[in-house]
Amino acid sequence: MIVLALDTAGVDCSAALYDTGADRLLSAVVEPIGKGHAERLMAVIDEALAHAGVPLAVVEKLAVVVGPGSFTGIRVGVAAARGLALALGVPCVGVTTLEALAFRHQAERPGTPVVAAMDAKRGEIYAQAFDETGRPLSDPAALSPEGVAELAILHSAELVGSWAARPGPEVDENPEFAGRDRFDIGAVARIGAARAVDANRPKPLYLRGPDAKPQTGFALERRPAFTAD
Predict the structure, then answer these.
(1) Is residue 211 part of a domain?
(2) In which domain, by residue range, is 123 found?
(3) What per-residue confidence (pLDDT) applies to 172?
(4) What is the pLDDT of residue 208?
(5) Percent above pLDDT 90 for the chain
(6) Which of 64, 84, 155, 227 is deepest in the core (most CB within 10 A)?
(7) For residue 48, is pLDDT > 90?
(8) C-alpha separations of 187 from 3, 44, 122, 183, 226 in Å
(9) Structural domain includes residue 210
(10) 3-class SS at 118?
(11) Residue of 138, 132, 131, 127 lying closest to 161 (CA atoms)
(12) What is the pLDDT of residues 139-195, one digit of tens each?
């Protein structure tokens, strides 16, 4: 089975093709752009297909990062994945950013319980605990620093992600995004390939409302339409 994985939830605009039969990543294209995912995503998908040497028609499953992360970026990726899945007539599954962080760390250090913890700003951390096999031990949540520490102690788990201050090689190569979480698109593809398909289409995972809110008190007054006597 060929899986197409997409990620627009963070600073990267990424796409990858994964062959489950050969257990091989056919291609992975990652552009650290910060913003503008909607304008670049389709070109990134085309590039991933070209590098893999396969047409879009061979894709049998879509996997997309659903968050938590960038409010706008998540919407771009989920909408694109759902649209492509509908056009191709194939299933589509969601993968969380916290799962991707945990998967990558546990692939490098198997048998280690972890708490994936992302800096959510405003004094909050997105966090979730996973056992040594990658099975979730808690629901994804927006927690205080104290709450994250308690979660790690409760499960005797190691902290991973931006809140754990564990910058990876990608961050070192891209100082503009130092300290920002980035999600291994290969991990997203592998998680998505193994994920059971249900009747529900993937939807964005928001653990709090968007940072941008309408300004109150500045709306123009609505006046009744002019009517002639």
Answers:
(1) no
(2) 2-194
(3) 45
(4) 76
(5) 74
(6) 64
(7) yes
(8) 12, 18, 28, 8, 60
(9) no
(10) strand
(11) 127
(12) 999 999 999 999 999 999 999 998 885 444 443 455 566 667 889 999 999 999 999
What are the residues whose beta carbons fall under 8 Å from the beta carbon of 49, sequence distance 6 or more?
Answer: 17, 27, 55, 56
pLDDT of 35 reads 92
Q: Is 38 exposed, middle or buried (0-12, 13-18, 19+ CB in 10 A)?
A: middle
Residue-averaged pLDDT of the chain: 88
Provide the pLDDT for residue 123.
87
* CA distances for 23 relative to 26, 112, 123, 174, 186, angstroms: 9, 23, 40, 29, 11
Q: Indicate the residue type of 223.
A: R
**100, 162 in Cβ contact below 8 A?**
no
> Can you tell me the distance from the alpha carbon of 53 to that of 84, in angstroms, rounded to the nearest whole number?
19
Q: What angle do CA 192, 193, 199 make, to 5 degrees?
A: 70
Strand partners, 29: 15
Instruction: Give the distance from CA 155 to its chain's centroid.
Output: 24
**Is residue 206 in some structural domain?**
no
What is the number of structural domains in the chain? 1
Between CA 88 and CA 7 the distance in angstroms is: 19
Q: Quote the pLDDT of residue 226.
A: 47
Residue 69 corresponds to which tokens in the numbers above? Answer: 């992360």
Copy the structure tokens of residue 23: 């257990």
Q: What is the CATH number of the domain that holds 136?
A: 3.30.420.40
Length of the chain: 229
Q: Is the pTM of this model over 0.70?
A: yes
Whether omega for the bond prior to residue 210 falls within 30 degrees of 0, making it cis, is no
Let me know the angle formed at the C-alpha of 27 by 23 and 33, rounded to the nearest 5 degrees: 130
For residue 219, is pLDDT > 60?
no
